[in-house]
Amino acid sequence: MDVSLVSPPHPAWVRPAREAIRALLAAADRPDLTDTVVLLTSEAVTNAINAYAARGCTTSVTLHAGWPDPARLRVLVHDEAPGLPVARRTAENDEGGRGMRLISYGADAWGVCAHGPGSGKATWFELGPRAAMP
After folding, report:
1. Beta carbons within 8 Å of 100's beta carbon, 6+ residues apart
2. pLDDT tens for each residue of 73-94
3. Whose CA, among 35, 83, 89, 96, lies 20 to 30 Å from 105?
């Protein structure tokens, strides 16, 4: 089972993205992954939306999540905002900037790829054994 959502780059989309991931994990009977995957999805989607807001982009953000094999979940968030996200260091009082660092710590594998159909890039992460770059 896979899930895909396409939405305008608006913060209101973060909640439906989290709910879609919760439903996917419930259908797969994987409650052990729910808290981590929901958090990481929220961070990846928020990053994409914030990149759009900073650059005035209006094209859609796409979320895709699925099981490359029964034990491994891959989540991919595609956007067309220029630039690539990075896991950066933040100060204790910074209000943002921790999304990619959370993904890097919480996922078994993660990355950003700019290849594939269309323009833009995709931030992806995986949880489960044998996690590897797609």
Report:
1. 43, 47, 85, 86, 87, 88, 123
2. 999 999 888 777 665 565 555 4
3. 83
